[in-house]
Structures are given as C-alpha cells and as structure tokens.
Amino acid sequence: MAAAAMPLAELERWLQARVDRHPAATSLPALDGYVAAIVAGPVSMGPLDWICPLLAIDADAFNHGDTPEFAAISAVALRHNEISQTLSTAPKQFAPMHRREANGDVDARPWCQGFYAAMRLRLPAWAPLLDASNVNHRLLRPILRHCRDDQGRPLLGPPPNSPDPHRNAYADIPAAVEALRQYWMPIRYPRAR
User: Residues with Cβ < 8 Å from 156, sequence gap 6 or more?
Assistant: First the structure.
C-alpha cells in the first residue's frame, strides 16, 4: 500500500535529518524554490531526474510505497502539481514559501537558493537568461539577487543606486516565476507544425 503524502512540517524535519546525505533542499522554502524552478524552467524533466537529488534518495525509493521516502516523494509531487496548477490557472496567486525573520522581514534566500539548485541540474538550458547582455536576463534577477555561489559569493552584484538591494526584492519573485514560465513555454512545449 502506498504511503500518504508526508505533511509539509514533517517533510521539513525529514529533510533536515538527511543533511549528511546532501539533499538539494533542507528546508521547505528551499524545496519550494526548487520545485518552482522545475515547473517554470526551460526543460521537462522526469521525476527521477529532479526528485532524487532534491531529497537525496535512490531511484529505487519510487518502487516502495510504504516508506518515509515514498511519502516524501508524494509530498513533493503534490507541491509540484499545486505550483503547476496555480501558474496555469491563477498565476497572480502564486506565493513562494518564504520564511520571516524575527523582525518580520522576509528572508527569500533559502527559496532562491532552492530555485538555483534546480537550475543547476540543467544549467546549459538556462544559459540564454544567464547572459547579462540578454534583455531577458532581468527575468532571473529577482531570484539570482538572493543567491550565492559555491564559495559563498553573491551571484549578482547589487543593482545600481540601491542602498539595500535585498529589502523588498522578494516581492518581485512571484511575477518573475510566471514570466519565466511564459518565456520558456514555447521552448518547453513546442507546437506541432
């Protein structure tokens, strides 16, 4: 019998307990960003190709429906479907799962790092938007502004004339995700001629 989808709070604890296995996400915001990139990105990927690194599981976990791994897979699949449905039918309602700091500020970094982790699975496919001279590079800026490379350096410098480049930058992320989805749609789902 297949396990029910793991509740999100339990999924976050489960991910944090797997840190030594190096899952692509160890928090719900990072998982949510990762899944959003899979939904809005340039290529369709089979579930094994993106869920296995996300959860740090073996492909065989898909074959055993009565395990915590399968319950985690089910939870991720549900979130994927929720994001896909929202972006398809009510994109203005898309809301990333961001954490709030003690002072009430939104911390978009984990979500954005999760998005970037999913991008890195197929980074060459994202290449056109990674080129700063491409006018459409702006679609990624609200996300990449919060990201750091493997050495901890910011991926992007601060925007010109911005005293605090991160303050309220998170507010642009939902529209950016929908714009990215629209940008990649003709490439990801070409129409038959």
Answer: 141, 144, 145, 147
pLDDT 10s digits, 18-70: 999 999 999 999 999 999 999 999 999 999 999 999 999 999 999 998 999 99
The H or E element containing residue 85 is helix 68-89
Residue 61 zone, left/alpha/beta (φ > 0; ψ -120 to 50; rest): alpha
Residues 53, 182: Cα–Cα separation, whole Å: 26
> Cα 13 from chain centroid?
18
Q: Which two tokens stand for residue 20?
A: 């030594």
Q: Which helix (H) or strand (E) holds 106?
A: strand 106-107
Prediction pTM value: 0.92
